[in-house]
Amino acid sequence: xxxxxxxxxxxxxxxxxxxxxxxxxxxxxxxxxxxxxxxxxxxxxxxxxxxxxxxxxxxxxxxxxxxxxxxxxxxxxxxxxxxxxxxxxxxxxxxxxxxxxxxxxxxxxxxxxxxxxxxxxxxxxxx
Amino acid sequence: xxxxxxxxxxxxxxxxxxxxxxxxxxxxxxxxxxxxxxxxxxxxxxxxxxxxxxxxxxxxxxxxxxxxxxxxxxxxxxxxxxxxxxxxxxxxxxxxxxxxxxxxxxxxx
Lengths: 127, 109
Description:
The structure holds two protein chains of two kinds.
Chain A: E1 3-7, E2 11-13, E3 18-25, E4 35-41, E5 48-54, E6 59-61, E7 69-74, E8 79-84, E9 93-100, E10 103-105, E11 108-110, E12 121-126
Parallel strand pairs in A: 2-12
Antiparallel strand pairs in A: 1-3, 3-8, 4-5, 4-9, 5-6, 7-8, 9-12, 10-11
Chain B: E1 9-12, E2 18-23, E3 35-39, E4 46-49, E5 63-68, E6 71-76, E7 85-93, E8 97-100, E9 104-108
Parallel strand pairs in B: 1-9
Antiparallel strand pairs in B: 2-6, 3-4, 3-7, 5-6, 7-8, 7-9
């Protein structure tokens, strides 16, 4: 059974870079069938897709966060990571890593559903 | 402000049926598959419906999904107290981003 587990600091100072890692077990991130992504949820609020990475290394990011986000993968460790720079209090959230398929046509891929989800890790940005 | 619009809350009695709506536009729901998620208190979201109406293995047929034009609906029949949760719809948007609704809190009275 595929499982995803987030890890990283639970407290980050404002203006610094948030770094999280997702460790995948029960499956390989090198699979060509799926993408691997990050979704966050501020306390008491809704879901926001951050970005995703494909086994080839290609990435796609939420346009609203693109300038601050980097997602990378380490296939030897079966992990992928998130870096979010210049964080503010508005970035405080539970961060989930996810797996998802891509629906691709003419070079454009859409991501319509996410499963499974990691349990999530709360990252608080302090001033 | 979420791209997709859901009612903040719905409620119904045990055993009854409830529907949750999700409204979007031609740039998202109108041209892409819709998915639905259940988030029980203190847990991660769980996929309930994908590709508008399909249920993953293990999801009971009490849960159903449909889509028409730029709106989608999640239906839950035979309500149980264990169904009390937040429900989110999601899809892809032409702005090149996955988008979600603001969530609907289901209360089973």
